[in-house]
Structures are given as C-alpha cells and as structure tokens.
Amino acid sequence: MADVPLTAADFPPPSVEEWRRLVDKDLKGKPFTVLQSPLEGGLSLQPLYTPQDAPAPTEPPGVAPYVRGTQPLGHTEGGWLLCQEYAGPDLAATAEALRDDLERGTQGVWLLLDAPHGLDVRDEATLERLLAHVPLDRTPVHLEPTADVLRPASLLLEVLAKKAGAAKGALRGSLGIDPIAALARHGAAKVDVVRTLTEAAPLITSLLKDAPGLRALLVSSRPWADAGATSVHELAWSIATGVEYLRELERAGVSPGEAARSMQFALSVGGQFFPEIAKLRAARLLWSKVVAASGGAPESQAMALHARTASATKTRRDPWVNILRGTAESFAAVVAGADSVSTSPFDEPLGTPDELGRRLARNTQLILRDESSLNRVADPAGGSYYLEQLTGEFARAAWTELQRIEALGGLSRAIAQGDVARVLTETRTARDKAVRTRKLPIVGVSEFPHLHEAPVQREARAAAPAVQGAVTPPQPVRVAEAFESLRDASDRYHAAHGARPRAFMANLGTVAEHTARSTWISNVLAVGGIEADEHHGFADANAAAELFAKAGTTLAVISGPDALYPEAVPAYVAALKAKGARTVAVAGRPGDHEAAFRAAGVDLFLYAGADLFQLLKTLHTQLGVA
C-alpha cells in the first residue's frame, strides 16, 4: 500500500458548538458553570478557550505595550538574569555565600536589608566587606531596604565608586528607594513618602545621565504578597505605587519618562501557574499604559521586571516539597518574560538557608535555562487563547482596583486610612477558609502529610518587633501556618509522652468496602499529627470495644460504608464509650442520620469540605494535646 501523506484536512476539528453539546450531555443536567474554576480577585477560569476569546496578539515582543516582553528577541540571547536573594544575618557567612554562588552560576545579587528582616548594613565599611567578593563592574546588585530607604542607596554608591571606578555606564542593579513599602511596614510616623522622593530626585537625574543601568527606585510587592494579597491586589497596588512615584517626582522636577526609566519592579510569583504568568504579562501592559498616559515615550514604558518565588506558599513541614513549588513558580516567571528571577531556597521558611538550599535554588534556574532551553523562544506564552484572555482579565481587574485606590487619594493614603489592611484581612479570612476546608490543599501539610518525617534544622531568624501605630502593618503569613501549628502541638506531645496522640480506627465491612474512606481518615488524622491505629474484621461492636480498651487512647473513629452506618454506629458508639472512649468520631457526612447519631453519642463527623482545622483542633483538646 502506497504511503498517503496526511494533512490537517484529514482531521477536521469539531466545532465549539459540537463540543458544547457533548459537554452538556456529559453534565447530565448540571449547569455549565460547574466547569468554571474561580480565582481570587473575582476572576474565573473557563474549561476551554478559543480564538473568539482572545485574538492573536498584534504587537511582537519588544514593542509597546510590552505584553510580550520588553526585548525584541526575548531572552534568547543569553537568558534572563539569575538572581539570588540574601538576608543574613551573619554578614561574614553571607559574603562567603555570595562568592560561592557567583562562582557557580548566580549572575545577580539581591540584598534584603535591615535587621531583623535582613542584613544589618550600617555603614560603608560593612557593605564593602559584604560585597568584597562581588565583581561590581559586571554583577548587578539590587538593594531592598525595609526601613531607611535612602541611606543604603548612598552607601552602595560610595562602594561602587570606590570599587568600580569610572565605569559607571556599565553598572547594573537598583538602589531600592521604595518609601511606600517602608510606609507599609513602619507607618507614617517613620516614613514620609513625599520628602523621601523629593530628596531622591537629584540622585535620579544624576544616575540617568551617568549610570542609566543603575535604577534608583524600587517598587516591591513583598509587603502585600507576603501578607496574603491576591494576585489582583498585588498587581494593582504595585502599579499604584509606581503612579504615586511618577506624580510626586514630577512635582520634584523629574519628568514621568525619567522617573519610569529609574524604576525597578519586583513582584512575587505564587502557586497558580497560568494565572501568575498572566499577572506578570498584565503588569507590563498596565505600566506601559500608565507611563504613556503620563506623557512618557515608548522606550520609557518598558517595565524592568524582577520576579521572585513567593514566600507565602512555602512550608516548614515537608520542606522538600518547596523545591517543586519553587520550580513551578520560577518556570512561570520565565514563561512570563521576567527580566530577572530569584528562586527562594527550599529551607528559607526554617531560617537561614544553607549551601544546599541555595545550590538547589540556583540550579533550578540553570536547568530551566541550560537543559530545558526556556530562553530559546522569545515569548513562550504568546498566542495562547487561555493566557492572552487571562492577561486581559487580570489587567482589567487590577485597573479597577487601581482606580479605587486613586479615588482614595493614592496608595499612601489608602495605607494610612487602613484600607489596605482591611482588604488584606478580608483576603486572608477567605483564603484561610479555603485552606481549612482543603479547597486550597497544601501537599505535605494538609494533604499527604509525612507524619514521621525527619526534621530539617536551620539557624532560626530573630522575630520582627511589633510595630505600634494607628494602623497595623501587614504581617507576613504563610498559607500552611494553621495546620503546621497542629503538627507543632503533636511534636510537643510526643516530646512529653514519648508517643504521638493516637486514634483507634474501627473500620467496618470488608477491606474493599472501607479502604477508600479509612485511607482518607488516616490522612486526615495525620494532618493533625494524630497516628491512626487501624483495626477491622470485628465479629461485633463488643469485639471492637475490647480491642479499643487495649489501645491506650481515648479517641475512636468509626469508618466504613454508609450503608452499614444506621445500624452499626449506635451499637459501636455505645460499646466504645462503655470501654472508656471519651470521643467518638464518624467518618463521612451523617446526612439524615445526624440527629440519631448524635443522640447515640457521636461527638463529631469527619468529612470532605468540613473545617478540618477546627475539627482537628477539637480532637487535640479532647486528647490533651496543647
């Protein structure tokens, strides 16, 4: 048989209408909306995107409004800048870490300053020792101070002048002047945004002339992202920060175009892979529109965008999973076209990262670049109906929030009035509910916990002092903290009693009948640091109670098929409580039998969708776990 070439015409795609008819048939009367996935910030994902949702992009990479990146060739010529963040607290050890990392692939340095949050750099000599092994003429250095935002800039300029000599035009990096971020952390009593920018204006003008690659201003989303902001709020508030800087600097004699060219943006990248790509692309779009509306030329509209993997998504429990989280977040940042990327070490939530943590973080990006060749395509996300549509939705949602902030008088006033704190509280409350019910699962913590994992120890960081003021500043929070507190309590119990709290599991029916539910319950108990002691194959309730009496616990969980519950649950509860069970839980929703089961003595029900944290907290109290 002769070979017959196949063409696309041989495989005509079904129409969207045909697909929709098939979907409606499979849904069996359920509304189509059940296939939509809600996102924070009021957005939602559709199950399918078509050319009607997002036409092909008309602007190539490197052309305003820079949705597809600020460089015509993307990062195909050498890749993005691989940055690494450093926060100390040991300055000598950090200096050695800088040298080692730069010798092994790190290209840029990002310094978090001010104790106890970061490096305690008090004078020029200290900064010079810290950067002793850094070739400043070819290594971009970025500062991110959390308190005094002007002094570190002057210190770095002094060190650069001394070590880099007259080659100012080759200098790269940012001085980190970001008074709104400092305002968010410390309050209006310590930070005057207008005065800071007025004092910085001559420096901005000077650097644009002598060292255009050294940006004076920073817009960091860290205070919002670490405190639990949605991606939409993080994006909107970052653009609002930039808008306020443009406005105040123009009053100080710096044109919007000049101010924009002096600005470095730094956004966090969380765990929602595709939405985070869309967020970064939308950031470039919005900033281009803002600068254009302010009178800035197209070359001034290009956002200098640094992306860092999020702190809020990382866990102290099963921290090795953070390697995978950091990989996905770094991948998203690269696909979105970030100019530089920082991957946080997997052990960062535990304290000061060690050499292994920094090495794995660094190699994550090296593999993405050198082995996966992600830099070989100028705009990997371009033309995707899904991402193009989502980019537009992010931009519109963030623009709406930006207009709301502007109506309040700008971001500084929104912070001082408590509006930002209010929004963050609402966001954290909603997210906490999703975490507690496991609608937002956390692998290794609220899902598939490793109860007997070997602890990873790192040097703990000093706690940040409480900031007093009329408005409480945003506090960093990780999504896993609530469930991690349960595991911490289990560890304390283990240290005091030589064993973990235990639950006797009475599994009803055959193995085939109970294994799915009993496995789920064992996982749920492990989330709270409670060991499951499983038993099955009882002759009757009394036989189960006899085994319970030997188990050495006061908690029993009945698990099995729903069909056995109406008759078995009352009998098993009575027998177990007669043998000393203070708490009896039933696996699954009780449905119409709840009143009867509670009358029989059932204390609580464990089922998917319940507030798992509160249920486990209740079990801890009843087991004497503090």
UniProtKB/TrEMBL annotation:
GO terms for cellular component: cytoplasm. GO terms for molecular function: cobalamin binding; methylmalonyl-CoA mutase activity. GO terms for biological process: propionate metabolic process, methylmalonyl pathway. It comes from the Bacteria. Residues 42-456 form the Methylmalonyl-CoA mutase alpha/beta chain catalytic domain. InterPro entries: Cbl-dep_enz_cat, MeMalonylCoA_mutase_a/b_cat. This is Methylmalonyl-CoA mutase small subunit.
